[in-house]
Amino acid sequence: DDITIMSWGGSYSAAETEAYYKPFTAETGIGIVSVDADNPATPVKAQVDAGNVTTDVALFLLSDAVRLCDEGQLMPIDASMLPDGIDGTPAMDDFLEGTLSECMVPNDIYATAVAFDASKFAEGAAPSSIADFFDTEKFPGKRGVLKSPKVVLEMALMADGVPAAEVYDVLDTDEGVDRAFAKLDTIKNDAIYWEAGAQPPQLLADGEVVMTMSYNGRIFNAAVNEGKPFEVLWDGQVFEWEGYVIPEGAPNTEAAMEYIKFATSSAPSARFSERISYGTPRKSAAPLVGNVNGTDIPMAPNLPTYPANMTNALASSADFWVDRETELGERFNAWLLSN
Amino acid sequence: MSDVASQLTTADGRPLKAALATAQARAKRRAFFLVLPLLAFIVITFAVPIGQMLQRSVYNDGFSQTVPALTQWFEANPKGTVPDEAAYAALASDLNLMKETRMAGDAGTRINYVVSGMRSLFTKSARKAADLEPPYMAALLDIDEDWQDPRVWNAMRTASSPWTLDFYTIAFDRERDADGKLVKVDENQRIYFKLYIKTFVVAAVITAICLLLAFPVAHLLATLPMAKANLLMILVLLPFWTSLLVRTTSWIVLLQGQGVINSILVALGIIGDDGRIQMIYNQTGTIIAMVHILLPFMVLPLYSVMRVIPPSYTRAARSLGATSWTTFRRIYLPQTIPGIGAGVLLVFILAVGYYITPALVGGADGQLFSNMVQFHMTKANWSMAAALATMLLVGVLVLYWLYDRLIGIDKLKLG
Amino acid sequence: MVASSDNAFVSFEHVQKSYDGETLVVKDLNLQLAKGEFLTMLGPSGSGKTTCLMMLAGFETATHGEIRLDGQPINQVPPHKRGIGMVFQNYALFPHMTVGENLAFPLEVRGMGKSERETKVKRALDMVQMGAFANRRPAQLSGGQQQRIALARALVFDPKLVLMDEPLGALDKQLREHMQFEIKHLHESLGITVVYVTHDQGEALTMSDRVAVFNDGRIQQLAPPAELYERPDNSFVAGFIGENNKLPGVIEELNGDRAVVCLENGERIHATAVNVRAKGEKTLVSIRPERVEFKPELIPEGSHTIDAEVLEVIYMGDILRTRMKVAGHDEFVLKCRNTIDQVPLSPGQRIRIGWNPLDARALDMI
Amino acid sequence: MVASSDNAFVSFEHVQKSYDGETLVVKDLNLQLAKGEFLTMLGPSGSGKTTCLMMLAGFETATHGEIRLDGQPINQVPPHKRGIGMVFQNYALFPHMTVGENLAFPLEVRGMGKSERETKVKRALDMVQMGAFANRRPAQLSGGQQQRIALARALVFDPKLVLMDEPLGALDKQLREHMQFEIKHLHESLGITVVYVTHDQGEALTMSDRVAVFNDGRIQQLAPPAELYERPDNSFVAGFIGENNKLPGVIEELNGDRAVVCLENGERIHATAVNVRAKGEKTLVSIRPERVEFKPELIPEGSHTIDAEVLEVIYMGDILRTRMKVAGHDEFVLKCRNTIDQVPLSPGQRIRIGWNPLDARALDMI
Amino acid sequence: MALPTYASPLERAWHATYLVICVLVFVFLISPILVIVPLSFNAEPYFTYTEKMLSFDAEGYSMRWYDSLLTSGMQASEAVRDGAWWSDLWHNADWVKAAKNSVIIGFWATILSTILGTLAALGLSRPEMPWRRTIMAILISPMIVPIIIVATGMFFFYSNPCAIFGFGCGRLTSTYTGVVLAHAALGIPFVIITVTATLSGFDQSLIRAAASLGANPRRTFFKVVMPLILPGVISGGLFAFVTSFDEVVAVLFIAGPDQQTIPREMWSGIREQISPAILAVATILVVISIALLTVVEILRRRSERLRGVAAH
Ligand SMILES: Nc1ncnc2c1ncn2[C@@H]1O[C@H](COP(=O)(O)OP(=O)(O)OP(=O)(O)O)[C@@H](O)[C@H]1O
Ligand SMILES: Nc1ncnc2c1ncn2[C@@H]1O[C@H](COP(=O)(O)OP(=O)(O)OP(=O)(O)O)[C@@H](O)[C@H]1O
Ligand SMILES: NCCCCNCCCN
Ligand SMILES: [Mg+2]
Ligand SMILES: [Mg+2]
User: Fold this and answer.
1) What are the domain boundaries of chain B?
2) Between the CA of residue C122 and those of C126, C149, D152, what are the distances in Å?
3) Bond into B135 cis (ω within 30)
4) ∠ CA A39-A43-A45 to the nearest 5 degrees?
5) DSSP-assigned letters across all residues of B92-105
6) pLDDT (mean) for B312-320
7) Nearest C-alpha in D relative to B333
8) Of the four listed, A17, A209, C280, D328, which is most buried by Cβ atoms within 10 Å?
């Protein structure tokens, strides 16, 4: 039987197709119907609520996976059933700390980071820290800001000097929230907001902004595939992982499980990372990641998981956002509207 | 007059009005049967689904379905009762149920809408529910102090019934304080009401601009010979065929700082390179792009009405001494009212409901009320989205009613 | 020819109509029409003629009463199955069709073949002398041309009943006479039934089997033309049909159908009593202008003669209309044939006029 | 009264008009109108009357020639400054305004105050007997009522020139006569100039100072009513105005304005030569029905008498129209006044009729 | 449109202004379309006029987006472009499939909404129509409710349409019928509003005339009413079609993988990548619609000529 996989579409799904779908079908004979969604969590939740589930596997952000899992809408996945790493490490140990959760098997780790067009800055005068993003004196000009409290508030605090490890403690207090918004105030007049991942490279290419928050994969794409002089600033970025879930009531749970086992095993995971610059959550897969598919540029240094990129990085807290998203979302929207 | 009328009767003594009504009943039925298929269609394919959806704005069983014990306790104890050990015992039993049915998330989410940050209270406690031992109050407070927060208990009491007005409370920028009284939320959390008003204002501005731009064009098209008019009509229709997404993107290309228009102006020396005009990522951008998208919705109804206005009326007016302007204002314009009405209705309502374009070109303050609906939909907060949608719906219906009152839907029908 | 309500082709029984529930536009209409009859409705503007036609055609519903067509209550038959041809007062030509297409329309809906259709359309167009206009749009026609097309369209499918609402109103005399002839001819040769509305009394009198005079939502008189003209039932009819000299007075003597009336200036005249009941009643004595003579040699024996002062002579082609002052009334009219040997009267002239007392009719005072 | 082209109030000079660039609807129109004149356009349907009015009012442009109003080429003056009141053939009442608003409109655009406006509107409505209808919408009026409103609206603002396109066509005789009187009265008391289109010859003849007979895009004759009727320039005019008996024949003798015509049955008659030029020419002898007598005692001395066979007697109220066969033609008509002592003729009867040879007019053969 | 000779200077000035305004509005309407056409040939994946494009350097232009349109989804896109390749394209290419779906769904949704909507507008425009305002409000409500609510609500309902009667009867989601019904509902307000407005100027006596000539209501409708209100019906139908043709949210929820439409295809991965491919699609659609409109206009003129009606 065919299985239906719902994912992000675009280059993300293109990478999945090459790294997972085609080899999986070749190996098992199970066909794959690929469906895209703006954010798969929304239609999946609707499908489960309506008792009309057509999706077998979906790719979720961690926070969505936690939320829907708590609500009983995703099948719990016993991580111990996952295949061992290619080096023999049991699955439970092979996945990076904390990335496994009750209902989701992680697929990749992506980061939202600051990026800029290197050609627009003199040698050595390029932004070098997250604080620079908020420094309009030193770096006048527009900047692209993600239109979401998540990530943005964390970055604001880090730019304001809060160490990554303390960000959520601070943000959990009213003063911390005020502090984050106060920091945001400093760039409010210079901000161009974006929502779609494709917008930041466009903004950079058009010269509309001097720097922008962006998903690291998009910047990498522009740089490697189109030769754009775009660079990612590996400081104060926020990373999160996303992965596969099985909706409660999915029509083909067995084949779905087969697929997840296959896709999240070491070799395919590495193949995936060669095709899009998101890090693999499998420790055993990291060394397998070679050059960017079809080039001789090594992929590893461009991944959010590359140790040198992780010096001042923050792991997005699903627990925090599950609790506070509604409230902070409303406050963020109110802040956007206020002058 | 009507006194006399009510006394008027037909030959056999029936009131004339009644006789008239009977005589017209057939005609009424016939008219109604023409509408019936569509009405049935809309009711089945649209009204029922939407009704069910909007019902969620007052119905949310995320909490109520997993708290049988607490519900009993709430029924037995009036509002304001300080939760006692029995209450906590009920809570513990319900937490156990949540754990079994994996509903803690649902329950927590429901309470979290009202008291922020309380979702994890439920998931966390449910996870540990199996280990709870009496006295439950102490045990639960041991897990989290928040269990004695009266706001949580108030929220649980309200949410123990699936029927609720909580979401409208939020939509009106209100919340319940510890005593359960309705108060305004913090200044920096107030958003919906302001946005609501703003949305209608922006829609009105867009409608007005569309009307101003569409009127001359529709008039030109209506007065030109058919052959020429049809050629020009292509110019109106082309944008129409083009995806909304593409057109919106195209406006970004045109309007942005380094965009086509600014670059042309710079090249012509009209503005300096550092004097580029900010035409997008603000209200201006939203309005320009939306006017462009909605303009055909104004032009076409105007055109189809203008095309059939006989020239003899304008002639008559001129012969009676009216200047061309007066003729236009007093004779032509009133006869285009059905078209204006249709266009205004279309454009305004569409403008109120748009969210993609404002999101893409609107910048910080470019979002409209529908963006909020969208926001909650993507967060799967059906109830909140439904409440906001209902507000939008009611707002438009009130305007529709006003329009009917002031101008009259019947103005859509002359005579 | 006159139909009873049982075997009537068309019958209106106690029909009332109100548009607004406040005023009755048709008050109590009773009318029977035999098959093949030519009935004309005549009446002042706004008296409900068009409304009656519309009810008969099925486009307005009577608020009360019953209308039957061929014995069937009309409500049972949808308008398009009634086989009624209709000429609308505003023509109602289809603006998007050419003249030819307008005419072909009723034939087409009857499934008539193309060649037969074309023949019929051509014949109908020729009848109204519009053969050359088949390809025009209605907007490109003059008013009279439009009316002719409307007429042709109502007749082209040989309906058994034709309703015509002032079908010749926009035509000149020549053409009107030609069309009157054509209509009469069709009526007779095809045996169709016609309900005709006109403002032209000549038309009404010459064409109709019977004329219904409408006023104020009621039929005032329903009679063959001559009877209507010669023996009007009331002074509305007398006044409405043809020209009429009216002298107010009081009945002094009443003797069967003979009356003596005292005019306002005290003069006594003899008259035929028509609508008066008692001595002392106020009356209007009506005398048709053509029954009044002024040449002494033409005033018949036994005529009543009276003094008159000529006020105005109006040239009307075949007739010279002479207005004069008689018994204190200055609207008294006399018609002289415009013959070459006519004695010309001139304003200010005083003459003596006379009429046969049988021609003076004492009517009710309205 | 007749204007020369210099001092004329309205003048058409060599005006041509074509709608489609193919056929000329108006061919060569020359017409001068003096201030205060009442001119009527009479002509068959489609002869270009409305088109002329439209050009004068400025709604159609002449393809050729010049129209002047008050000495100025009309092209220079916008319609609303021409001060022309117009009654449109299709009324053109504003559907979105009530009757009262329709009437107030021309006053309002002239900036007249409210109370004055109301007075004037009321007076105009009363004039057309529509006082009670001020609050109706046009769609709620009968055809005749709409026409009356259109008339009132064209007159309410006291224009100096009024164009009326069949303004009384939808009215019954009584009302029409009343309105004719009102229009004439306004014309005389206010000194307004009127261009009037009508199909009613009686109306044309009684109301006008001059009548322009249109045919085929040209003015066939432009003359005062009596002249038109008595001395038509050509057989189109003779045939178009009034009723006419036409006997075809050949000129046998021509002597100044006296001619002897040989009719088709060989009979010879005397006639006045009007439009004939030579012996042997074909001609139509026209004799007005009212100039023909059949009572032997009334046939004047020196009359030409001829045999006739009565074919049909048509009742027309004041007149009995008798159709008979004369000299082989069966459309010969004679009109008898419907008097009580009239000798009734009946179909089949053979009589001898006569007319004064001066009344027989030998015209061109069309 | 020519101004009469008596027009005052003010009128002339206004007339000129009016024409200028019209021209400007047309420019406004069309410029976004003009802008996207060259960009669809951009060699780069951005909506930016690059230096190379501006200097008309051939390198700045490419067909890559058109190529990607054709080949994406094909089984063997690299094969020689022979008959098999084209057949592969026709059956498997994502955009071709999407185009087919868009046309099919748009067509049926338009038919459904135009027929039902016109019928209802006829009833609504009769003076004797009872409860007109309320019914009108119900009928235009699909336009008022935010589309995202509509889509979700419909998804829930269409998942098991018989649930309100308490039993199951299959689902409408992931079916053509479901998408067509949803799109028809969304298109109906446009038809209602435009047709009602057009009917308001309609001379009712023409309907009577047709009936008196023996035409039954159906015939009257098609032969008399329809041709006269056609501009309104067409613009209503056009609105309905475009609504369907440009609709993505309802498709997102209701359509299955087999019912992907053009906008849905554009939407795919829009978060991930917006590429000039969507501009290429837009350009192709523009070309097709110009061709269609031109053909329609030529046919119209031909039929006028054949019927011997002077052009007006
Ligand atoms: N808009 C038009 N396009 C083409 N031809 C037209 C147009 N209007 C009128 N005509 C033609 O011009 C001729 C003159 O029309 P006009 O309306 O002036 O006649 P009319 O004398 O007023 O006739 P009626 O007495 O019937 O109203 C007619 O043959 C008519 O068919
Ligand atoms: N739709 C309507 N609504 C209200 N009143 C109407 C309507 N139609 C006609 N009337 C009124 O009904 C009365 C009769 O109208 P109808 O049209 O039958 O008159 P008519 O005899 O045909 O007059 P005319 O000779 O002027 O055409 C008039 O007073 C008119 O104002
Ligand atoms: N707020 C939702 C952000 C979703 C970002 N997804 C990025 C996916 C990268 N593969
Ligand atoms: Mg009438
Ligand atoms: Mg005319």
Assistant:
1) 2-57, 64-188, 192-411
2) 6, 12, 41
3) yes
4) 105
5) HHHHHHHHHHT-HH
6) 86
7) D96
8) A209
Q: What is the dihedral of CA E279, E282, E286, E288, to 10 degrees?
A: 120
Ligand 1 atom index nearest CA of C133:
31
- Asked whether residue E158 is domain-assigned, the answer is yes
Residue D262 Cα, ligand 2 centroid: separation in angstroms? 56
Any atom of ligand 1 within 6 Å of the Cβ of D47 = yes
Tokens of D44: 């068959």
**Helix, strand, or coil (residue C3):** coil
Q: Does E211 sit within 8 Å of C79, measured CB to CB?
A: yes
Average pLDDT over residues B231-257: 87
- Are C325 and C245 contacting, i.e. CB atoms less than 8 angstroms apart? no
Which ligand has the nearest atom to the CA of D144?
A: 2
Is the shortest distance between the CB of D19 and ligand 1 below 6 Å?
A: yes
Task: Please check whether residue E90 lies inside any domain of the structure.
Answer: no
Identify residue D224 by its one-letter amino acid code. Answer: P
Residue A244 tokens read as: 């596969």
Is D87 exposed, middle or buried, given 0-12, 13-18 or 19+ CB atoms closer than 10 A? Answer: buried
C17's enclosing H/E stretch is strand C10-17
B2 exposure class (CB count in 10 Å sphere: 0-12, 13-18, 19+): exposed
Arithmetic mean of pLDDT over chain E: 86
Of B37, B246, B352, the CB nearest to E119: B37
Distance linking the first and last C-alpha atoms of chain B: 21
Mean pLDDT across B1-19: 59
Residues sharing a CB contact under 8 Å with residue D66, sequence separation 6 or more, in sequence order: D12, D13, D14, D15, D73
D109–B334 CB contact, under 8 Å: no
List, in sequence order, every residue forming a beta bridge with A215; answer none if it has no partner.
A112
Burial class from Cβ neighbours inside 10 Å (0-12, 13-18, 19+) for residue E306 reads: exposed
Gap between the Cα atoms of C80 and E220, Å rounded: 10
Do E144 and B393 count as a contact with CB atoms less than 8 A apart?
yes
User: Which of E203, E213, E309 minimises the CB distance to C153?
Assistant: E213
How far is D44 from chain C, CA to nearest CA, in Å? 6
Q: Distance between CA E223 and CA E204 in Å, rounded?
A: 14
Domains present along chain D, CATH in parentheses: 10-235 (3.40.50.300), 243-363 (2.40.50.140)
Asked whether residue E24 is domain-assigned, the answer is: no
Gap between the Cα atoms of C329 and C309, Å rounded: 10
Tokens of E83: 């008959």
Longest CA pairwise span in chain B (Å): 97
**B192-411 topology per CATH:** MetI-like fold (1.10.3720)
The single residue listed with the structure tokens 């009016």 is E18
Q: What does the alpha-carbon distance between residue B94 and residue B66 come to, in Å, rounded to a whole number?
A: 7
Is the C-beta atom of A12 inside 6 A of ligand 3? Answer: yes
For C291, C306, C325, C330, the CA distances from C356, given in Å and listed in that order, are 8, 12, 19, 21
Q: Say if E3 falls within a structural domain.
A: no
> Cα D147 to the chain's mean position, in Å?
19
Which residue shows structure tokens 């033609």?
D329
C143 lines ligand 1 (CB under 6 A): yes
Looking at the DSSP bridge assignments, the partners of residue A74 are A247
Q: How far is the CA of D245 from the centre of ligand 2 (A)?
A: 41
The pLDDT value given to residue E1:
47
What ipTM goes with this model?
A: 0.83
Owning domain of residue E125: 95-311
Counting as low any pLDDT under 70, the low residues of chain E are: 1-2, 269-273, 304-312
CATH number reported for the structural domain that contains residue E292 in this entry = 1.10.3720.10
- Is 0.90 surpassed by the pTM of this model? no
- State yes or no: chains E and D have 3 or more CB pairs below 8 A: yes
Beta strand B174-176 pairing with B182-184 = antiparallel
- Tokens for B306, please give them: 């203008």
- Assign B414 a pLDDT band (cuts: 50, 70, 90): very low
